[in-house]
Amino acid sequence: MRTTVTETAAPDADQYDPATAKAAAAAIDRPLEIRSLSLRNRLVMSPMTRSHSPGGIPGQNVADYYRRRAEGGTGLIVTEGVTIDHPFAVDNSRVPVMYGEEAMAAWRTVVDQVHGAGGKIVPQLWHVGPLWGAMRRLREGDRSMRPSGLWGTPGVTSYPDEVVGRMRDDTEPMTEQDIQDVISAYARSARHAAEAGFDGIAIHGGHGYLLDAFMWADTNRRDDHWGGDVERRANFPAAVVAAIRKEIGDDLPIFYRFSQHKQQDFTAKIAEDPADLGVLLGALVEAGADVLDASIRRFDVPAFEGSDLSLAGWAKKLTGAKTMAVGSFGIGKSLRDSRLTNQAPVKDNRAELARRLSDDEFDLIAVGRLHLAEPELGKVLTEGRELPAFDRPKHEGELY
User: Fold this and answer.
1) Which of 104, 207, 287, 349 could cross-link with 238 by S-S, CB 3.0 to 4.6 Å?
2) Burial class (CB in 10 A: 0-12, 13-18, 19+), 319
3) Rounded to whole angstroms, how far apart are CA atoms 119 and 334?
C-alpha cells in the first residue's frame, strides 16, 4: 500500500516541520543488508572531490574527516573519487589513489577509524576519461581516454569557455589494448580496496567521465563490440563491473553511479526513454552491480514524462536492483547553480524524501553538501532536527 506524509507536511513545504521531519526520520532510520554489508540506516555520504591528499596519499586529516561522519550517525560513507591504477585516470595529484604501498597503508588507517566509529565505507573508483585536462592543463605525453576520440558536444556547462576550448579537440579513439588496460586497472584497484578492508566498491560511471562516455551516444560512435547500438554501448561499463566482481568475489557489494546529465552538457542523456535505460542498467546488474546510484540534479524530479518516478525509481523498477537517490537534498539550488551563484539556501524537502523512501521507490538517500555543513547529519536526520545551512566558502575549504 502506498503511504504518504502529505497530511503532516508544513503549510510551506520548504520550511522545517517537526511532523514531516519525524516521518523522514522513520524512513531513514531502517537497516539494510546488501550482500555482506549491514547498514544501520539508509543515509549515505555522497562522494565529493576534496583534493586534500597531496601526492595521492590520504593523511590523518582525511581519516578524521570520514570518521566524524561515521560518529555522526551516517550509515555509509562513499569516499571522494579515487584514482585507479592507470596513468591517465585522474589529472589532479591531490586526489587520493588506490594503489601503491604508502597509499594503501593510509587507506587502512581511514578504514579502521571509520569502523572504530561504527561506520561503513566504500571507495569510489574513478577514471575521468574525456574530462582529462579539466583540473590541470595538458602536458606533453598526456592522453585523454575517449571511446571515439570525442570530448562531447558542448552544451549547458559550468566549465569556462577557455577550459572547453582546450579540451574539445578530437583525439585518437581508444584502442583495444587501451580498453583492456583500463579494465585491468579497475580490477587491480578494487582488489587493493578489498584487501584494505573496505566494505564494498563504488564505481563512478556518470557525469561524462570514461564509463559514461561509453554509454553516451554522442561520445561513443564506435562500430565494434564496444559501441554502436544501445546494447553495445553498455559492454565496456559492464566489463568493468564483471572484472571487479571476479576480482573481489561474491561477498562485497558493488555500487555503480550513473547519470543522464554530463559535465559537457547538463541537458544530455544516455537514454531518451525507459526502454533504453533498462538495457544500459540491466547490463550492469547482470555483470554484478548491486546498487545503482542515480545521480541527478534534484533527487525527486520525474525522470520521464508520464510518470512521477525519479531516476532512482526507474532504475529499481527496470532492473529490480537496489537503488540510491542523490541530488540537492536539503538544498534550494542544484550543485551547478550554487557553484555559479555561490549560494545554496536551505530547502527542507524531507516530505518528498519520506514519501519516496518509505514507499521503497528507492532504497538509499545519498547526501553531499549537507554532510560538509554538519558532520552529525545522521543524527540530525534520524532525530528529526532542523537542517543545517550550507556555506560554500566555509564548507568547501579545509576538511573538518
Assistant:
1) 287
2) buried
3) 28
pLDDT above 70 for 180: yes
Neighbour count for residue 133 (Cβ, 10 Å) = 17
Query: Does residue 12 surpass a pLDDT of 80?
Result: no
CA–CA gap between residue 224 and residue 173 (Å, rounded): 12
Predicted confidence at residue 1, as pLDDT, reads 27
Candidates 1.20.1250.20, 3.40.1350.10, 3.20.20.70, 3.30.1330.10; CATH matching 6-395: 3.20.20.70
Bridge partner list, 201:
254
Q: Retrieve residue 325's grid coordinates.
A: 537517490
Structural contact between residues 126 and 51, judged by C-beta atoms closer than 8 angstroms: no
- Residue 266's identity, in one-letter code, is F
Query: pLDDT value at position 339?
Result: 58
Domain boundaries defined on the chain: 6-395
Catalytic annotation on 209? Answer: yes
The single residue of 65, 99, 209, 256 carrying the catalytic annotation is 209
Cα separation, 231 vs 250, whole angstroms: 25
